[in-house]
Model the fold of this input.
Amino acid sequence: MNMFSIQAGATMQTKMSTENGVVIPKLRLIADLDMTREEVVVNSSWVSNGAVLPNVTGVKPSALGGIIGVGVEYVSDDGAYALSVGYDAGIRPDFLSHSANAKIRVNF
Done:
C-alpha cells in the first residue's frame, strides 16, 4: 500500500512547575489530506490444505481527515529523566484509528 498525504496543524502546550520537575500537557490538531486514497486488499489462504480464499477489498477512504492528539510529559528538575504518554485519534468519515505511546528518557 502506498500513501502520500499533506498535513497541516497546530500544537498547543504549556509548562506547569511542580516540586521536583515540570509537567507539560500537549494538544495537537492536524488536518490530513490523503492524496492516494488506496483501498486495502487482503489476500489469505488456508494453512492446512493451501486453499486460496477470495480477496477482500476494503472501502476507499475519504481524502480529508484529521488527527487529534493529547499527551503529557514530565521532566525532572535536573534533566536526568523524562516520562511521557500520548494518544492520537485519526478521524475520517468512514473510520477511526487509535494510537498510543509511552516513553521513558534517561540522560546520562
